[in-house]
Here is the input.
Amino acid sequence: MLFFRVFLISLVLLLSVTAYTAYATAVYEHTLENGLKIIIVEEHKAPVATFQIWFRAGSSDEPRGKSGLSHLLEHMMFKGTPKYGPSELSKIVQRNGGMNNAYTTKDYTVYFEMFSSDRIKLSLELEADRMQNLTLDPKEVRSERQVVMEERRLRYEDDPQNSLSEEVVAAAFKVHPYQRPVIGWMSDLKSMERNDLYHYYKTFYSPDNAVIIIVGDVTADEIVHKVKAYFENIPPGLPRKPMASVEPAQKGEKRVMLRKEAELPYIIVAYHTPSFPHEDSCAIDVLNLILSGGKSSRLYRSLVYEKKIALNISANYSSFNRDPYLFFFSATATPGKENAELEKSLYEEIEQIKKEKPSEIEIQKAKNQIESSFVMGQDSIFLQAMKYGIFEMLGDWRLIDKYLDGVRKVTPADVVNVANKYLHENNRTVGILIPTKEDSRSKE
Amino acid sequence: MNPHAFISLRYPLFFSVLILYAIFCFLSTNVFAFEAKRTVLPNGLTVLQSENHNLPIVMITLMVKAGQSHEPKEKAGIANLAAALLTEGTKTRASKEISEEIDFIGASLNASAGNDSTSITLSVLKKDVDKGFELFSDVLLNPVFPQTEIEREKDLVKGLLRQREEDPAFVAGRAFRSAVFGEHPYGRVIEGSPETIDQIKRDDILKFYSEFFLPNNSILSVSGDLSGEELNLLITKYIGGWEQSGMPEITLSKPDEKKTRKVIKIDRDLTQANIVLGNPGINRNNPDFYAVSVMNYILGGGGFSSRLMQSVREEKGLAYDVHSFFAAQKDAGHFEIGVQTKNESANVTIEDIIRQINRMRYEEVSDEELSEAKSYLTGSFPRKLDTSRKIADFLASVEFYDLGLDYVEKYPAYINAVTKNDVLRVAKKYLDADNFTLVVVADQEKAKLKY
Here is the structure.
């Protein structure tokens, strides 16, 4: 019998009504001798389950000149092992009514399947196999490189707003590898070889650098034995050196311009901010929602509803990064309006919250939105598993409680403090999209 | 799309297409304990409910059987405006008050119009369900469509349409549907065009609302932590006074039946050619729907198991994504294949697509392909009903398309009955390798299209 630690996670404890504690979830946790951690959550409301394996390997772990390596490897993980040839894995999954996919971020890479619960054990064999026996056929590497270049053209080269976002992030970081896009720069992609992939794979896809998360209609006692059987003999990978780059404090505004065929002006303003569990991160989350959470938020009301200078405006702060990242604001101009007006109005709203404490009601609304999104997220086993994974990547899934506790404690004064501390001129990078448009190109 | 998300997925589209057209391909061999109740109230409102008390949330979908198809062509965009304006002012609440109250309880309340229907959805925590349902009923029953909000919304929609010109997939899709459907409403963009939006007056919106937003023309679907009794109380308290009434008859234009090849080239400063190729398809009640589902899975609906994906992406490295689907709607439908490839590869990619269409039309599929398609289509069913949100939307769709509450049990038999011969027959009937519509948005000088 494996030793299990069982924890009660009380996501809904935030809700004031005590009856809701009845919804607390049991989390089973076990670590194999080779360092692979397993987290299992039983959720029997529907006969489905998800298996996810998270590797602490993202674009910030790539060597210089090899941007996009993590993501290309993610694609290659579907190109087969000696046992299961190219595309076979996906075919097996689909034949069993399942779906599989994967995604890469700056900090980690995740592979997952969704199945009817009676098929979930298939994941164990397939994932254990490709975690250690990937073929990385040079011919397949060349072909998949082309596919990723097409993906880059689709997502960035031909999308003016995403192109600007890439420019802003690249300008905001000069030292830290968060500078590079997950998908990689085109010339780096062209130079990517089989050996680059192989070395990275053998280094980072190590059991002590991974976490397995299973959520759904499973029995933890039963499935953990099977996970153990498939994964416990996987040997550790090559030694890893921790990425040591630290972005120095920004000492003055940076501005980047992008001229590109587009219809409307668009602006991004990004401020360097700390990541959770930094003590300021929960207050920044609340600040983010006061400014941009829903149609009643300050920025929507002011720029979209009242002044009618923006078609849309969003603020985006995700504190769940390994290292300090950015708090973004972005807005598309209403036809006839200019970036300068957007920028000025955005700063007016920011200056306002730096001077005057938000009301208790605004603070409570933001907290309610965070609570509600946590509870609503439980509706999907996939999102539940993701939540454990995200916090596990930050060190420990139990940080979920610390996060929610931190949110609950935020005061109006905290919000004013973090606004003053981070949302200032010297700390920002501004991106401006200047639409260029050739007339009368359209013809039938 | 959120421009700052730094996630890069291996292949996002396959499943999002399945979700969009969720009603297409469901259901399974697994026996799935799934209970739903259906009742029709004295005012004609159909109510569907599935209880699930695992999580303290309630998901509501109200579907009104009126959308784009029910508006005049020269005023296209009425249904979209009517939906958007429901949450912009009621008899007792201004726009700001509605958003303030909804946001305060961390709920979401949205309304959107589609081709044949309009949906209002509410997602709310159980502890706030009374407040949420009250707001939901207020925007449903008491919208006042203030003139200032109408003007604001019209400007916003026109601006968003302008922004979407930046999206080559939108530009290609719009040209494609317009060519395939001709005068039929499905050929139009749901928002209308700047010209038609300018024609819309407040009276048009009021008329659309009062003619169609009726209980006898609506479906209320509820899933989650709410008992039948609790739902009845909410209905009685908040929408008990909703009165039924007669509705005007609508005659839709026929889709363009002429069979000719149409090629539309749109020139843009792009690195990729956005290609859409297809033809008219089937409506949702066509008995060939299930054979078409199997056939399309093999051709281009089945992600990495599909022939198009295998050939275009896996073997030739020409594209990140290639897919096909049949959009089978209430009155008509269409078939389309979509792909993006660098300008210079446009011709070779189109050739490959036409070759795959011809293979489907002239050769039987293999036993393995047939059985894989069937096992996916039937075996993926439990995942289509694995959240309360999906269940609420599913029940409304089943009712809307008149599939019967036993659809969940019947679907596997429908799929399993499909033979290789059926697949060949529907491929010949519904795929056209000669008289297709082809739209290419690209840098035309580099694409040098042969078509």
